């Protein structure tokens, strides 16, 4: 089958990994173009990745002959703009999450995308493509745990990222938009229902600088769904063990747990510290394969002319709930999701 | 050392186990009397346990010469009355939890107990005496996980108890008073703070009969503490794996998990169902040793003239928070604990 | 039921624990006498345990009026003599393992015991009374793993005991007699067959002093049974994680693993060392409950006039195989067990 | 970098997987040719894999212009011949294990390969390329467990393969050559020493047909190494839990365990069967990534002009020890490895 000609915008840490997957691990992709506002990133693209067409300006890249699809791995506040421009240029587009931390922006992107029904527009909730999460979803769909009614899910970074996150938090939309969108998406996916109301609490338990920035280093959101189901979602920045991200689904006939502890590999040590397993450092270490699979799936959808399972509506809903959590956290009250939309 | 002459009121399933511990496994106890309104229970006490003095009337038992302490293992709605009478009869008294599901009753018992400062009055939050919980508390106190700021704790019975619980729920005070008082007590113990406000949600996800009785088969309470710390407490009646009760404590330097899965023993099976461990059936199977240790400790406190770590104030606080959870569940709103007291 | 009047010989570390079980935790026992050649041990018996009758001379203790049973917890090289004397004095006798490291001595004790068919004589292979081992045996007997054909079992002490063991090894009969007798007994128990030939290898991998004493710090014995089944038994003195003792049974329909890792309790830590569980320090920490149960069972057998499951023949067979292992280790050849008997 | 033009011989189940890796997942490979004696396999290569050049005759494929390297995934008894022919045709060659079950043949291949020092000749002991095994090796090399002195390693297939293996065993060289070569290679790798003598026992415990074919369904080999270290290696065909393959390395300062249980993924189930994890079905499920990595590494060695870590000498040593095990199993005696060479 013909390879798909792909461009990428954003070659920060995550963008570089996407680019390497597209070049080295996904035969259906031909990464012909990259765009970045950073000279260092473009230099890396030229010398290390040998990408033929490089751009400082996103609009210029979109005019490149033959380009078929764009991966938007730029900073969060640019996602919506880049998606819209790519669609308007006649391209398929894949964007890193979140779509936007503005509910209004999400809706605008959705409306524009509706005008280009033959072009794919996907926001990458990668965990749905992690083999363990997929397996769990299949088990749930097969009825292995009966009817699911409770999801516990958390996204907790290793402590070592805190210092960097304190700088980054200003542009990230805050911990609910940046971290918990994943957990919100998973809860919706597993429960097959929409969040109705939330109560979010938390604080800067270890690093007061997060409080000064209007954010937190650990938050917990309780969600009530429109079918009566429940979720409790945690996000944090202070785990010592590693990237401590997992999900549990409780149903009437059983419980599924995915990924706790987030061990690096299959090695156990028996030494003076006890019987132990070491854990992954970062979300990339944990979800490396999921990032590969989601990009493969996006390209396969283009090739096969099928719709991806993830829609912009999923991305919009995650943003709405994240916004409800943010407001609840700020006000100290239950927030009805209906008020946010 | 002299044995302590002990009486017991209530010889239901749990009362029988207390009696057997006092007879066979606690050398410092001399169980000389038992009281029950059930002929079958008294017959068991006479023929199986060979307890010398048997009573249908609690007041009569209290007049028994030489009696020094009473174990109140009667039905929940009798605890407060039996504690007060035992105190007024000059005896030390140990009561099963909860003290009462009425906050008012808790306070009355506390006030009366204050008039008998030389007599012990203890409500049995047994989990504090489970070896794993004690070990975890010691670790926390030593600073192993830094400052704790989040507790997750749950009390979930095996599905097989549901049918019986449907009958029992009318007299139990409901799932928050009957199940979550343990988790409330543990959260207070580990966090060293008091609950300020709660939001409780849940439903009868598997057995609608619980909803008809004004109760639920799974509930989840989010708690905000007066020092900013958090807890999320679950209670349920539908676990298939066994009695699925555990606690997790998250601190600034690490996390402790106690007792999940609640394996029966140290045996693992590798067979067509996978690599697996079987789990305990009931709370007794899980906390058998804790029930022994707490009774031993109560008697040791009497012998050594020291105060037990658990006070009636602990029991009262647990009831207050359970009552706040109950009201929140009924109203669908956040309830401030201050409103309950 | 009447308490059984019991004496004990040997109040070293293990003897003290037996005595405490008999006094504080086994209501059917009345520990009226103790014997030791150590002044310190007798002083402990008088002041801490308040045992009424104390003896320096074992023969004198045996003449004590009313004595019904003796626990032999003396040094290994005294077990056989003490058992015989107790039997000749008309008493029931329980002895710590091994019966003797001399096959000849084992047979002599058996022959003498046969003359006293109304008196019990038991050697304490405690692991058979550990709740997890009992559960596993029941599973095997129920056919849960089909026909068992392979046992892996090991007894490995924490490194911290090595220094002390170097002194002790001269009197212990060596690592096969001292450590592996347990594993040999378990392999016979689970496989229901007798060892036919063995090959034992090993060395002093960490502490050369064991080699100088003609012993080892890690040995491994491969056993072929008379029904074709297999076992591999390890013993060691250098584990860092704790007392690393476990058993695995492989059958035609599944595998059972008992007790690895040998965790202290149900607490897990998530910290900079990974997701981990701490392990027991000593065999006592691991098998404390088994030591209690085996003593209870011995006394119950006396009271109920039934034979214990463990016979002197079991003890003799364990010694025979341990001796075959010792010879194989020394000669570097396969040794047929038939040559040892 | 230029892609390497590759051919493959053998497109059975494993050959198909190698081919797919070379086509879809390894950008440095250009799979231009395939050879098979099976019409069905060639048809698959044409229609499913679209490999341009297809051959029934291996010699013809070797004459294909531009071919640079050959993957030998033919039946075990053809490996040696195919390796030699590929070398003589001037090609680099990678072969599935074992090199041969004949020690003589191994030595002949080694001698011939020595005449082509500029061409790579590698036998694929894939486990060395499994991420967990690599991590463990690195830990050992860093001294994390001190000096390793004991390896336990096993290769046990799921029961479901037994029926097929009964047919296949006649051509496989037997269970030691077919299964345990992996474990032998790993033991040599981790211990850094050579096997000096072995004792192998076992039987057809579940499927008598293996005994009739002169083979077994579970075997266990005890190995003594020339530096005094030990290994115990198991191989079997009857596991119910899945492909139950793992390795443990014991050193003076700690123990490493790799891959037990061999879980499918990170999902745990809590249901009526207990707290459990499902396990992989086949060695491919377990070592899929290792098969990818070893092929990548072979091609990278060609591109970078470096020698692979695995040598034909490693393959020859594995065959020698497997042969010693086979003889020991047949004779019922210890076999010195020196006698085999």
Q: SSE order of chain A in H/E notation? A: EHEHEHEHEHEHEHHEHEEEEEEHHEH
Instruction: Classify the oligomer.
Output: homotetramer
Spatial order of the strands forming the largest sheet of chain A? 12-11-7-10-9-8-15
Spans of chain A of at least 5 consecutive residues whose pLDDT stays below 50 are: none
Output the CATH topology of the largest domain in chain A. Answer: Dihydrodipicolinate Reductase, domain 2
Query: What is the strand tally of chain A?
Result: 15
- General shape of chain A: globular
Q: In the CATH classification, which architecture of the largest domain in chain A applies? A: 2-Layer Sandwich
Rg over CA atoms of chain A = 20 Å
Nearest-integer average pLDDT of chain A: 96
Structural class based on helices, strands and sheet pairing of chain A: alpha/beta
Tally of separate domains of chain A: 2
CATH superfamily of the largest domain in chain A: Dihydrodipicolinate Reductase, domain 2
End-to-end C-alpha gap of chain A: 43 Å
Strand count, sense and closure of the main sheet of chain A?
Answer: 7 strands, mixed
How helix-rich are the residues of chain A, as a percent range? 40-55%
Largest inter-chain interface?
A-B, 31 and 31 residues
């Amino acid at each position: 089958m013909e390879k798909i000609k792909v461009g990428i915008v954003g070659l920060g840490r995550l963008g570089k990994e996407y680019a390497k997957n597209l070049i080295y691990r996904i035969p259906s992709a031909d990464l012909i173009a990259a765009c970045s506002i950073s000279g260092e990133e473009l230099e890396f693209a030229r010398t290390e990745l040998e990408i033929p067409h490089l751009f400082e300006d996103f609009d210029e890249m979109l005019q490149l002959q033959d380009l078929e699809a764009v991966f938007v791995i730029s900073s969060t506040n640019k996602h919506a703009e880049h998606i819209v421009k790519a669609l308007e240029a006649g391209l398929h587009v894949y964007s890193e999450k979140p779509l936007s931390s503005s509910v209004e922006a999400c809706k605008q992107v959705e409306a524009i995308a509706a005008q280009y029904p033959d072009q794919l527009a996907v926001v990458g909730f990668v965990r749905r493509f992690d083999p363990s999460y997929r397996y769990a979803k299949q088990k749930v769909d097969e009825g292995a745990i009966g009817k699911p009614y409770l999801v516990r899910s958390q996204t907790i970074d290793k402590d070592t990222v805190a210092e960097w996150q304190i700088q980054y938090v200003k542009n990230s939309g805050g911990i609910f938009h940046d971290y918990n969108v994943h957990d919100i998406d998973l809860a919706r996916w597993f429960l097959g229902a929409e969040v109705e109301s939330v109560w979010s609490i938390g604080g800067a338990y270890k690093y007061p600088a997060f409080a000064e920035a209007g954010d937190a280093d650990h938050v917990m959101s309780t969600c009530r769904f429109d079918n009566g189901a429940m979720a409790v979602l945690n996000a944090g920045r202070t785990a010592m063990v590693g990237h401590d991200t997992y999900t549990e689904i409780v149903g009437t006939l059983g419980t599924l747990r995915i990924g706790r502890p987030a061990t690096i590999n299959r090695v156990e040590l028996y030494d003076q510290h006890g019987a132990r397993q070491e854990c992954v450092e970062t979300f990339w270490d944990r979800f490396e394969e999921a990032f590969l699979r989601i990009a493969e799936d996006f390209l396969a959808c283009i090739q096969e002319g099928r719709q991806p399972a993830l829609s912009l509506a999923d991305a919009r809903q995650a943003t709405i709930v994240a916004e409800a959590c943010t407001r609840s956290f700020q006000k100290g009250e239950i927030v009805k999701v209906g008020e946010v939309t």
